[in-house]
Amino acid sequence: MLNDTTFHPHQNVDNSCTSNNFKTQGDLDSLRSTVKLTVSLVIAVLCPVAVVGNALILATIWKKSFQRASFHILLSGMALTDFFTGLIAQPSYVSFSLISSSSATVTQDQPVAIVVLRVVTVFSAIYFVTITLLTITVMSIERWFHMSGGSSLSSRCRFFVVIVIVILPIPLVTLYFLNPPLFPIIVPTEMFSCYLVTSFAYFKIYRIIRSHQNQIQTNGIPRNFGHSAIDLTKYKRSVATILYILLLFSLCFLPYIVSNAVSFLIKADPREWSITIDVTMVLVFLSSSLSPGLYLWRMRDIRNGLKELIVCRRT
Q1: What is the CA radius of gyration of the chain?
Q2: pTM of this structure
């Protein structure tokens, strides 16, 4: 009888720990659901902002209210990418996030639809982000060549650059689906390579500007530079605009990239790290909504072109 009524302290402790674990896990699941819902609603609000804002930028550039250069064509490529991000990537992400988190029954009843929605979300997000990063890199190279040689890209070069930018992200997307664990390694490597090329291009631009300014101070006549001092001011502003674009991209995308890299290195539980990933996704999609405002702020020709476009629509 003594054995039947003996007190087992470890049994009560284990039951208490299990109860606390369930409570903690339940609180974590509740927090995760709340964060995912909030993130989805915020991204849903950002969708029309990105679509309308970038559509206006595209209409302004291609209305021919001002003389377009290679810089404007590349800029319109970025606006087009952000437009499709707001039109495809953001709605698919919101739909997938809400369906997968709020209704397990729907996920089980329609697995094919969920898989297709996930593929569209991942493919479009990675594809458009990579195109944006490549376009920023090409814009810095274009400014370097333009300031060193005084000529813009030819139509043939533009066509070749567009083909490369469109095709190059496809292997990265394919790699994600074939081997997802490598993704946190490949993306930082890609970003570092683009930053390295961009930094080299800006170093060259800086040397060209300094050399041109020194020549003007020495004899008042710029040599080996096909533009006047007034044009130099304009080109310096366009270079600064690319730097602002790169800064906006970095502020919006680096938190997501760093979060994925850290979770990969520390081998964190995806369920516990998902809250951080979801929050950083807001910044990723915020870039597409803020970019049109940045273009209008930094580029007078686009700002004036948009005013003319609005006046024409009213009349």
Answers
A1: 26
A2: 0.79
